[in-house]
Amino acid sequence: MILIRRPRRANIAGALLPLLTAFAPVVLSAEPVYVSDVGPGSVADPALSGDGRIMAWADRNGATPTLYLSNLETGTQTTLLLRTTTGDTDLDFPNAVGPSLNDDGTRIALVVDRPGRGRRPEALLVIDNSGAQLAKVTASLGSGEIADFQDRAFISGDGRYVTFSSEGRRFEATGISGNGLLTFGDDFTIKTLRLEVATGALTLAAFDATGALPNDDSSAQGISDDGQFVLFCSNATDLPAANGRPQAYRSDPDNGTVIQVSRDNLGASVSGIYCGDDLFEDEYLGISDNGQRVVYTENRGTAADGEDHTFVWTEGAGSREITGLQKYASVPISGDGLWLAPEDEPFSRLDIDTGATDAVPFRIRSPRISDNGGTLLFFNDMLPRPAGQTGDWWVLRYATAPPTPDPPPLLLHLEERITIGDGTRTLPGVRLAVNETVSVGHAISPLTPPPSVNGIELVINPPLLPGDVFTASATGFKPFSLVRAWLQSTPVLVGEEEADEFGRVSFVITVPENFPPGPHTLVLLGVAPDGSERRLEAPITVSARGAGVEGSVVAIPAGQPWSLLLLVFGLLGIARMHLRQLSARKG
User: Fold this and answer.
1) pLDDT tens per residue, range 440-466
2) Which of 43, 206, 263, 479 has a beta carbon 3.0–4.6 Å from 192's, enabling a disulfide?
3) Which domains does the chain carry?
4) Is the pLDDT of residue 212 over 50?
């Protein structure tokens, strides 16, 4: 089984950072808040929900199979006795390990043990926050022999899918409304699978170019929010760009594609990565909610310079090394893909794109970070606890800002007159302004948002003529998916844009020169977050050439200076024509 661990540190309590029982004079972006009622020795590999509200952990040491849920905002705690709440009479689990929470903390995936066999994880459970069983997976090696599971499973943010690894050859699953079965003959490698909680369907998630099992072990490492992408590591030699050492891969089980993501700054495969788990030393990889970013660390045992190197791979941009980190630390990534949360650093989190950090004067161990990077759960046994408490878990909460909206359009206004030369003559002219609207002979009023027609925001300067430009914006598409814009009656493709990370898309559309005048329909066609088709329509009217309006407001999208310059030059040409006429009269 793939469990590639770093050498243990000697004198962990005194390594690298000074032990502080009081805060050093550092300006903190957030103060640590103690997580109460979490006793010593009972917490290992806790989970944090994507919204940063719920912490889950299992008691590995007690005789009763116990799972705890703590609401970090209210301080309330729920205790789930798995032996009684799952209704599992044939499987009496005394311990639970490695829980995983969905985004709102209402669904938990965890691997559980069977009594009398030591720490031998032998089944995967998916339960809700009341302890009711939603799904279960068991595995066997044949002839009734029970197969082991990897300690931790990973549930998608929407709670619909779970990815896990096991050495089994026969997998049986029970879902909310159906059952699943998957068999692999006499293959003894460790497999990575994906479970659909609702139906119990099982799908192979680590596979080679033909869709078959790789020729060596694989290990589940994460799953995207919608369950589309599975992150796994493997040292199989029949996977893309394999070199026989552990590498990181991202698969799309539904489309049958797999790509290697563990590459260096130049795009070459790294020598090998850390991939495995250990108590308080977990070395799992990290994947963002949309599956577009992955963090991993090259193993110093195989690296040419004998040093660890942590990289972030980004879809479409390749890999970039994050320099200056301690070389033995696991590095979680926030769901939005913007933040890293290293351990044993003089800071608590790092902005991937800017390199900005939040300084802390105390040790951060085993960090977990929320989807928006605003909540950090961590272990520290040296900070002063409240009286009567014995646990060592803390939370940092950072202020988070909502996404920055797109800038408003730059408006070019027509005024009644503009002074030219010595002031003795006036001509129609132009003035530039932002966030204002002007009507001839009326006062300036604030800019109102563009009207929304059936979910599409349009910025149009009537009359809309062939060759004119207008903008159309909309939301609700699958992040990073392709959206197309069409003008109909006769369908004409007028734009293709990629939705941003929030599912927003904006088009700058030019009406074709030969487009017929009259009523038409603008259609935005793409994919919704759930994979279904998203189609938005808005009526528009194209006027025949020769139509005009005085004192109108012309909307020029921000970031399109060429459009503005063309209009200014055209108006200046009109001004020069008037000046020539004046000069002729004077002559």
Assistant:
1) 333 333 334 445 566 888 888 888 898
2) 206
3) 12-397 (2.120.10.30), 410-586 (2.20.130.20)
4) yes
